[in-house]
Amino acid sequence: MSLKTVQIDVTSDVICPFCPLGVKQLTTAIDKYKSTHPSAPEFNIRFLPYQLDPTLDEKPIQRKDHLARKFGAERVEPMEKAMIERFKTIGWTTDFSGPMSSSHLAHRLLSWASRRVPQNQFALSMDLFEGFHSNKHHTSDKQWLASLGVKHKMFANEQQALDWLHSDECDLEVRNAYKSAQQAGITGVPFFVFQDKYAASGAAGTEEFVSLLEEIIRRETAAAAKVAESQPESVTVEGAVC
After folding, report:
1. Is 132 a member of any domain?
2. Mean pLDDT of the chain
3. Count of Cβ atoms closer than 10 Å to residue 109 Cβ
4. First to last CA, the chain
5. Is 241 inside a domain boundary?
6. Number of domains, the chain
7. What confidence score (pLDDT) does residue 228 get?
8. Which PANTHER family does this UniProt record tie to the protein (predicted)?
9. Is the separation of the CB atoms in 128 and 47 below 8 Å?
């Protein structure tokens, strides 16, 4: 019995550099797995919200200044150099010289995508990651977010998207999701949950994700086969119906 679908929930924050790294490692691992397993299942990836820094608001501040206050000025340059090298492994650049702000609006947009156009949520998330980490957009920039909302078929035009961003749609939903992540014991991102039962955290590496996928699919396939074997044979009996 082959497994049809693997559900992967990724708890992440747009402003976290390890989140795009981990997600790209995961998708590369999925491609590698599929290349050697012709009957591979479909992989459904969904993004769930998390805030690394709830103290940030919509007013943009310089990313380097924020990191200096948080980690110490002497650590910012080594951190940036290390991240530049890490991002090269996924074919991206990263730039610490841009602004940053609260990621709440970006999470609202991702949650709305999950509800309205779930097939586009992954692409939207990757655009958000790249826009912040590589192209100096900040995550409370409503004009940028509106353009992405239109690009990914969530809104008919940018004015409609801006009106939505100025509303409170999905606000409570996202705030409750932050609480759910905390209650689940998630203290860092990215955090991956496969099939609602297998967890992995961080940008572990492509080969590690390949091994994890192999083990999860082996277990899930065996469990499904065991359930199927225990099912009684169906018997059809015709009788009265109403």
Report:
1. yes
2. 93
3. 28
4. 36
5. no
6. 1
7. 64
8. GLUTATHIONE S-TRANSFERASE KAPPA, THIOREDOXIN SUPERFAMILY PROTEIN
9. no
Q: Is residue 205 within 8 Å of 18, Cβ to Cβ?
A: no
- The answer on pLDDT for 37 being more than 50 is yes
Q: How far apart are CA 8 and CA 10, in angstroms?
A: 6
For a pLDDT cut of 70, what percent of the chain falls above it?
93
Q: Which domain holds residue 115?
A: 5-230
Cis check: omega of the bond before 60, within 30 degrees of 0:
no
Residue for token digits 């990651």?
Answer: 129
**Tokens standing for 164?**
């939505």
CATH number at residue 45: 3.40.30.10
Please name the amino acid found at residue 131.
G
User: How far is Cα 101 from Cα 56, in angstroms, rounded to an integer?
Assistant: 6
- Helix H segments across the chain? 18-36, 63-71, 73-88, 104-116, 121-135, 142-151, 158-165, 171-183, 206-230
pLDDT value of position 1: 55
* Token couple for 180: 């759910």
**Rounded CA separation 54/179 (Å):** 12
**Beta strand 198-201 with 99-100: parallel, antiparallel or unpaired?**
unpaired
Cα separation, 115 vs 95, whole angstroms: 32
CB–CB of 158/164 below 8 Å? Answer: no
Rg (CA), the chain: 21
What distances in angstroms separate CA 110 from CA 36, 47, 205, one per listed residue? 32, 7, 25
Residues in Cβ contact with 84 at an 8 Å cutoff, skipping those fewer than 6 apart: 93, 94
